[in-house]
Amino acid sequence: MPSSAATHKANKASAGELTSCVPPTHEIGGKKFSFSVKTTSDLSKSQRNQIWRIFEENMYKLYCTSSFGWNPQAKKMEMFDLLSRFVVVQRGDDQQDGAQRSDVLAYTLFRFDREEYQDVVYCYELQVAEDARRCGLGRLLTQMLSDIGAQWGMTKVMLTVFKGFTSL
Fold first, then answer.
1. Nearest by Cα to 77 from 22, 45, 40, 23
2. Residues 37-91: pLDDT tens digits?
3. Which helix (H) or strand (E) holds 125?
4. DSSP string, 52-87
5. How far apart are CA 60 and CA 124, in angstroms?
6. What's the CATH code of the domain at 133?
7. Whole-structure pTM over 0.70, yes or no?
8. C-alpha to C-alpha distance for 45 and 42, rounded to whole angstroms
9. Cβ(35)–Cβ(144) under 8 Å?
10. How many domains does the chain have?
11. How far is CA 65 from the centre of its chain?
12. Is 132 among the domain residues?
């Protein structure tokens, strides 16, 4: 489906232009987190590796048992496509729990797209590292996607859920 003017404009936006929708820091439960918007080309090699590590830790078993199978090369190409955008969560202060301030704790990967004749923010991934779960980062990242979409004229946030069963 051809892109609309709004989708086309949003896809041309730099990370800096998208950043206005995302607070630079947010405190949850006494812990401070920093947030940044990045394009694929803005990510450092270390950030790409950390993003991939979180994805692999969270999704490897689900992909292996699915009809998709595990194909890391294809998934990396999808994730780090030039149209991909990321909201990256890192530590916002010097927390003393063994992690570095520069460690990626969570992220959402999104693109601006057109689905069923509507301009949408399409969430490809929303992943939280195991040691950063249960503090509200997923909910906050979802709200940020909605805010980014609203500012750039998108009518919906869409995603596809990878259905699987795990024990919590």
1. 40
2. 999 999 999 999 999 999 999 999 999 988 889 999 999 999 999 999 999 999 8
3. strand 118-128
4. HHHHHHHHHHHHHTSSS---HHHHHHHHT-TT-EEE
5. 16
6. 3.40.630.30
7. yes
8. 10
9. yes
10. 1
11. 23
12. yes
